[in-house]
Amino acid sequence: MLRGMYLTRNGNLQRRHTMKEAKDMKNKLGIFRRRNESPGAQPAGKADKMVKSFKPTSEEALKWGESLEKLLLHKYGLAVFQAFLRTEFSEENLEFWLACEDFKKVKSQSKMAAKAKKIFAEYIAIQACKEVNLDSYTREHTKDNLQSVTRGCFDLAQKRIFGLMEKDSYPRFLRSDLYLDLINQKKMSPPL
């Protein structure tokens, strides 16, 4: 049987979270709870307030369950979802989507053309290092769009990848311990 996998009673293959995966996830998300103690850093009290204001309440995290858009609009939600995708080895989907969002903000036509080629080479080209799962029509359509680069040249590919995340990774994220812990967090009383 595959390491880290097991069959449930209904015969579905489920991933068992190992201690190493849990520790890795804790370390990845640790930046949200660590105090900034480097020289010249803000006092601990101010840093704690920043972290607390950044971490969502369980009510805010519950809103992420309404749509993938709401999740991606929240900085902490985006970071948590990205960490979750890393555990599933599918972070390239979100990275591509974010690269497309960033691409749309580029003003200069020459920078836009250079960035478009980079995005295509990194995510869309066959055998790309972070190749996303696109059908051949979308891949060719996007390649054709690079002949005359516009802000919308990745729109179809970005829409397809968003749909893939929305139907595949996002529902699993909503069932993950990572998300369930956030929505079930208890209000902790302040230390004395």
TrEMBL record:
It is found in: Nucleus. The keyword Nucleus applies. Keywords: Methylation, Nucleus, Phosphoprotein, Signal transduction inhibitor, Ubl conjugation. PROSITE patterns: RGS (PS50132). InterPro entries: RGS (IPR016137), RGS_RGS3 (IPR034951), RGS_sf (IPR036305), RGS_subdom1/3 (IPR024066), RGS_subdomain_2 (IPR044926). One of its GO terms (cellular component) is nucleus. Residues 67-183 form the RGS domain. Down-regulates signaling from heterotrimeric G-proteins by increasing the GTPase activity of the alpha subunits, thereby driving them into their inactive GDP-bound form. Down-regulates G-protein-mediated release of inositol phosphates and activation of MAP kinases. PANTHER family: REGULATOR OF G-PROTEIN SIGNALING 3. This is Regulator of G-protein signaling 3. It comes from Vulpes vulpes. The lineage of its organism: Eukaryota, Metazoa, Chordata, Craniata, Vertebrata.
